[in-house]
Amino acid sequence: MAVAALWTGHLDAGTDQACCKSITACGRAKKWQAALDVLSDIFASRATPGVWSFSAAISACDKGLKWQLALEVLAKMTSVYSLPDVISYNATISSCGKGGAWQMALCLLFQMAGSRQVPNMISFSAGISACEKGGEWQMALCLLSLMPGARVVPDVISCSAAVSACEKDGAWQMALFLLFGMPAANVVPNVFSFSAGISACEKGSAWQMALLAFSEMEKTRVVPDRISFNAGISACEKGGEWQRALALLSEMLRARLAPNDISFNAGISACEKGSEWQVALLLLAQMAAAGVVPDKISYSGAISACEKRGEWQRALGLFCQMPAVNVVPDEINFNAGISACEKGGAW
């Protein structure tokens, strides 16, 4: 409320630009309610907010993840000016997307296209992102295909959002088709594009294609991040390729990227699938040395790795170690421990 109070006493004389600055400041401070208070004060003073004030208020709602309120402000703006501007439409579409209301986001986008306002790159990217968050990869691709007809050239943001939409819904082949087709469309993939593609391969258990995407990253000089490596390690783990998983983990360390619990757990799980209990235990020890706290998944993989190789005493030792490091065993851990004892005849 403090920021809104800057202009409350001077609304009659204040310009739309001044009010817009106040509303924008509220939005940046994540004070969406204060931003709406400024807008309400303008109406209360019998003045009419300008387009910029409305747009700033919608943007504040977007930043505050209040998509329903963004729609209300847009509706109020329509009653005053009959036709909202492109910035207001874009902010509302973005807000609906963040709120999971992808249908409403598309409704606004098509409403915008049917009016005198022409959707731009931001409009389409916000719509595709809304579809991505809603798991609607077909609709995301539909929007991407409509862009050239609207004389809007897809960029790395819109293409990456479409790849991510495919990844979230398990359409890994289409995700790779988009990813590898980006250069032909004069769009240079970035780390987000590749990470989404590699993650799609991981979900589709296509470890070979995940490694192919990694090699393409190297060719295009895109530096992998932790998300890229984790997805690649997990893809190899699901494919039973423990050596390749560990190779990526080693490469991650050489790149001076600190592995997290996801990285180590995927590596341990890969070793478990390959019955490499010694390496699994080594990774478990490295977790603690790296300041990463092992969890149930970490211990489950290590115990199972020992159990598969008949190392029941080590498996039982790991099981007994869990409470000491504040990890509460679950059913999977108990079953792995019992199975190890059974195989060792220590019933």
Q: How large a portion of the residues is in β-strands, by DSSP E?
A: under 5%
Mean pLDDT: 89
Helix content: over 70%
Main sheet properties = none
Unreliable runs: 1-13
Anisotropy-based shape: elongated
SS content category = mainly alpha
What is the radius of gyration? 26 Å
End-to-end C-alpha gap: 67 Å
CATH superfamily of the domain at 154-257: Tetratricopeptide repeat domain
What is the CATH architecture term of the domain at 154-257? Alpha Horseshoe
Q: What's the CATH class label of the domain at 154-257? A: Mainly Alpha
| Count of individual beta strands | 0
Which tags fit this structure?
Pentatricopeptide repeat-containing protein, chloroplastic, mainly alpha, PROP1-like_PPR_dom, Serine Threonine Protein Phosphatase 5, Tetratricopeptide repeat, repeat, disordered N terminus, 347 residues
